[in-house]
Design brief:
three-stranded antiparallel β-sheet; CENP-V/GFA; zinc; Metal Binding Protein, Guanine Nucleotide Exchange Factor, Chain A; globular; 2 helices; CENP-V-like; mainly beta; 38% strand; 136 residues
């Protein structure tokens, strides 16, 4: 974590509680709303953190992964309740995309929303800073 960054420890999990995690992220989250085929249909809004800022606390045995197309995005979800609390995005293989709705109440001060045109993924990725969000 950089010294000037205002980060806090957020905790969260899936709907049934079988999967729990913690993540160090800003109090005010920068959340991506993507319109690619899967994010749009699942309403997979997410903020991105480096893998080092994320820790699975319990439930690894309850997780399963769905991939498609390039196979790079690892859509991780709970086998019990079906909720995707986090995943490995195609854009950030060295990080996690975390669903802000899966966080426990009390640590998020606000959300800044931004769009990512996933229907034109390559073009949007080439002009976006999204790849930098999983860097230390």
């Amino acid at each position: 974590m950089s010294s000037g960054e205002d980060v806090v420890l957020h905790r969260g999990g899936c709907h049934c509680g079988a999967v729990r995690f913690e993540v160090w992220a800003p109090r005010r989250l920068r959340v991506v709303e993507c319109n690619c085929s899967i994010c749009y249909i699942k309403k997979n809004d997410h903020f991105i953190v480096p893998k080092s800022r994320f820790k699975l606390l319990k439930g690894e045995e309850h997780l399963t992964i769905y991939t498609f197309n390039t196979g790079k995005a690892q859509h991780t979800f709970c086998k019990v309740c079906g909720v995707q609390s986090f995943y490995t995005p195609r854009s950030n293989q060295d990080g996690y995309g975390v669903n802000p709705r899966s966080l426990d109440d009390g640590t998020v001060e606000g959300i800044d929303w931004e769009t990512f045109d996933g229907q034109n993924w390559e073009k949007t990725f080439a002009t976006s800073d999204i790849r930098l969000r999983s860097k230390e």
